[in-house]
From TrEMBL:
InterPro entries: CarS (IPR032690). The chain crosses the membrane at residues 49-68, 121-145. It comes from Candidatus Muproteobacteria bacterium RIFCSPLOWO2_01_FULL_60_18. Pfam families: CarS-like (PF01864). This is CDP-archaeol synthase. Keywords: Membrane, Transmembrane, Transmembrane helix.
Length: 154
């Protein structure tokens, strides 16, 4: 499960490095919320969501899960990521700014809670995977920055 969450959240980052500005269409279309701030911001793209869906569905199949489970994990993880971006914009934080916990918990918790029964997860499983994801995400972000795959070390 942790691997699928990492793939779901890593595919958009890798896609940005591979495709650069190509296919870089913001999910919010540049729309602003009633507070005048962007809905999500320019770093949340259609390309990122599509790549996440494809990569996670393929990885799920390769790991013995159903492809639909991978697609659901991806979609719900992206929903968690969009939720945290929306909250960060409301708090006045700029796109791609660091917010420990807020950046990791929704994108790992949403899919696990939604698929709890389908995948036979316990509350302890969910807590363990979320905690592991937070730690892994923080460590991998620094590594990916060092490898020039991320623009920031977080």
């Amino acid at each position: 499960m942790l691997v699928l969450l990492a793939i779901a959240n890593g595919a958009p980052i890798l896609g940005k490095k591979i495709f650069g500005a190509s296919f870089n269409y913001p999910l919010d279309g540049g729309a602003k919320f009633r507070d005048g701030r962007p809905l999500f911001g320019p770093s949340k793209t259609i390309r990122g969501v599509v790549l996440s869906l494809i990569a996670t569905a393929l990885a799920a199949s390769a790991l013995g899960y159903e492809w639909i489970d991978g697609a659901l994990i991806s979609a719900l993880s992206m929903l968690g990521d969009l939720t945290s971006s929306f909250v960060k914009r409301r708090l006045g934080l700029p796109p791609s700014s660091m917010a420990p916990g807020l950046d990791q918990i929704p994108e790992s918790l949403f899919p696990l809670l939604a698929l709890k029964a389908r995948l036979g997860l316990t509350a302890w499983d969910i807590a363990g995977v979320v905690l592991a994801f937070v730690v892994l995400e923080l460590l991998l972000s620094r590594l990916l920055f060092g490898l020039h795959l991320r623009d920031r070390p977080y």
